[in-house]
């Protein structure tokens, strides 16, 4: 699987070196031969022709070329250059193709190793219900073994089979309901509106002043926010080249939004001690094109909370939006104050906070496929809407990205909220806060490891504190022990998102970590990394996302294949 990554080092780099060497040799030759240069005599005509030509070249060729070069980012020049090399040198091209085919095969056989009874073509006659039921129970049983280990970071947020069964029972008849037709599906409409009101009030909105919409997940919520600020910036401030400012720890969905909606991302570095940004750097990053700032409570990689109150002051001062990404931990951080957890205030009561996203399908304990996004004014929410009346299909209007939607995720989130109630969520939050604190303290007591920032909510990330301990090697030993944690980059670290589904196994995890460190200490050959470490290590050494992007294309292709 690492073939695609090694290719860069194996084939492209040596070719680059050759190219440079050739250029140097040629340059030396040229110098030693002392070629006579034209227009070197001092005749007036020659001088005139020389300067005219010189000026033409300068203004028509050199300056435009320089301007073009500066308009390109370093990355895009490098990308074009690598594309040029890989397309124009036949041996590189062939090797790249071979390596990609090999990688594709390997990835596909890994991903499809559990596949049984593949159906790649529509069966001529419908399958019997009994066959379908057999398939279903086989898939569910097999996958549940992998899911219900209690050893997975995030991914599964509730841990009560009875609760899940009741929720499924409640939502099953709403699957065919479609809130696009809110006049027909009145139940889904009411549940959606109630869901928004209940959640908005938890986030500091006043009754009747809740301006939100549900979405299919945190990614869509964040994308809708960025789209909304882009439209707001265009209409209110006439910004045609919108920029958003995000801490480097902000979720990938902001880059996705920027990619989809043609917005530029300005990234701010974070400080190791607090795990968050410096406000002075934020101020410096604001430009006339800024449409919004993003902060997270907490962020996905390291679980730290950004200084929302201070960021809000900056947002107010420069009249830009401040989006708070509470997707991951919103249903926990709402209860931080009551549980004496000290984090910055982040809700709509903070002047300057203009939108908040929160995921019901994480700690909101709903089924997958439901999140919501809120704005501080009706006007701002209007920028998210789309409607057309000039379509032959009639009037079409939607608050968020999809057209038709299922009523079931809405019903599930509604059920989750009213079933758990304020106190149910508060109890869950308390449990997660406490488990996080205890786990963090235990990791801090291991001298070979260091915790990143000051995590208090639900994620703890730790890096190696010892040059003889490769954190990815540790990650791999944990994988072999059945622990599916996240391996992260920039900096190299491991993280765990603590949920109701894994909190009981964390003492075991600490023991496994201590054992793994001992194993590596006693046998340095164990400090080597396999594929995961190679991917992270290589992408770090070659600061070229194209190789990684190519690789991910192969992986996505394989995931969509039968
Ligand atoms: C999970 C997450 C998201 C995106 O959520 P999806 O539901 O996976 O689309 C956004 N922000 C943060 C901080 C998250 O943890």
Task: Give structural notes.
The chain has 18 helices and 13 strands. The longest helix has 38 residues, at 407-444. The strands form three sheets. A seven-stranded mixed sheet has the order 1-7-6-5-4-2-3, with helices on both faces. Strands 10-11-13-12 form a four-stranded antiparallel sheet. Strands 8-9 form a two-stranded antiparallel sheet. It is globular. Mean pLDDT is 89; it is low at 1-5 and 540-545. It is α/β, with parallel strands linked by helices and 562 residues long. α3 (74-88) packs across α4 (90-111) and α6 packs antiparallel against α14. The site of pyridoxal-5'-phosphate has 14 residues, from α8.
Distance between the termini: 19 Å
Global morphology: globular
What share of residues are in beta strands? Answer: 5-15%
Helical fraction equals 40-55%
Count of discrete alpha- or pi-helical segments spanning 4 or more residues: 18
| Integer-rounded radius of gyration | 28 Å
The largest sheet has its strands arranged as 1-7-6-5-4-2-3
Which short descriptors sum up this protein?
globular; single chain; binds pyridoxal-5'-phosphate; 562 residues; disordered N terminus; 7-stranded mixed β-sheet; 18 helices; alpha/beta
């Amino acid at each position: 699987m690492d073939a695609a990554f090694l290719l860069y080092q194996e084939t492209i780099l040596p070719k680059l070196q050759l190219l440079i060497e050739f250029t140097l040799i040629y340059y030396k030759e040229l110098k030693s031969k002392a070629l006579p240069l034209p227009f070197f005599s001092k005749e007036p005509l020659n001088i005139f022709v020389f300067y005219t030509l010189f000026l033409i070249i300068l203004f028509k060729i050199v300056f435009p070329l320089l301007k073009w070069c500066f308009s390109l980012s370093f990355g895009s020049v490098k990308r074009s250059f690598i594309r040029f090399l890989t397309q124009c040198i036949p041996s590189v091209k062939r090797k790249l193709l071979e390596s990609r085919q090999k990688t594709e095969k390997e990835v596909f056989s890994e991903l499809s190793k559990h596949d049984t009874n593949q159906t790649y073509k529509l069966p001529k006659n419908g399958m019997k219900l009994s066959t379908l039921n057999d398939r279903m129970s086989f898939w569910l049983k097999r996958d549940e073994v992998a899911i219900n280990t209690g050893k997975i970071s995030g991914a599964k947020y509730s841990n009560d089979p009875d609760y899940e069964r009741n929720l499924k029972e409640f939502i099953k008849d709403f699957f065919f309901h479609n809130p696009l037709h809110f006049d027909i599906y009145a139940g889904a409409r009411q549940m959606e509106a109630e869901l928004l009101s209940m959640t908005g009030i938890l986030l500091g909105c006043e009754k009747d002043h809740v301006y939100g919409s549900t979405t299919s997940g945190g990614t869509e919520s964040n994308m809708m926010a960025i789209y909304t600020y882009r439209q707001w910036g265009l209409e209110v401030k006439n910004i045609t080249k919108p920029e958003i400012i995000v801490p480097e720890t902000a979720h990938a969905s902001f880059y996705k939004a920027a990619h989809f909606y043609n917005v530029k991302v300005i990234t701010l570095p974070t400080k190791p001690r607090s795990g968050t940004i410096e406000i002075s750097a934020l101020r410096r990053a604001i430009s006339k094109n800024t449409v919004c700032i993003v902060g997270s409570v907490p962020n996905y990689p390291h679980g730290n909370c950004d200084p929302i109150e201070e960021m809000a002051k900056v947002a107010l001062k420069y009249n830009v939006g401040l989006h708070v990404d509470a997707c991951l931990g919103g249903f926990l951080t709402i209860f931080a104050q009551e549980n004496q957890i000290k984090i910055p205030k982040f809700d709509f009561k903070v002047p300057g906070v203009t939108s908040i996203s929160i995921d019901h399908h994480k700690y909101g304990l709903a089924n997958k496929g439901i999140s919501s996004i809120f704005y501080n004014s009706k006007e701002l929410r209007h920028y998210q809407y789309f409607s057309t009346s000039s379509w032959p299909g009639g009037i079409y209007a939607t608050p968020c990205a999809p057209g038709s939607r299922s009523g079931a995720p809405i019903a599930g989130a509604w059920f989750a909220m009213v079933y758990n109630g304020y106190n149910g969520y508060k109890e869950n939050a308390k449990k997660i806060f406490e488990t996080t604190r205890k786990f963090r303290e235990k990791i801090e007591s291991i001298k070979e490891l260091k915790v990143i920032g000051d995590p208090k909510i639900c994620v703890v990330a730790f890096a190696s504190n010892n040059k003889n301990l490769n954190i990815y090697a540790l990650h791999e030993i944990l994988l072999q022990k059945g622990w599916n944690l996240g391996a992260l980059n920039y900096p190299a670290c491991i993280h765990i998102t603590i949920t109701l589904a894994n909190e009981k196994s964390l003492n075991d995890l600490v023991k496994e970590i201590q054992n793994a460190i001992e194993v590596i200490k006693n046998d340095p050959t164990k400090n080597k990394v396999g594929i995961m470490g190679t991917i992270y290590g290589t992408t770090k050494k070659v600061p070229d996302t194209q190789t990684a992007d190519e690789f991910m294309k192969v992986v996505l292709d394989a995931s969509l294949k039968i």
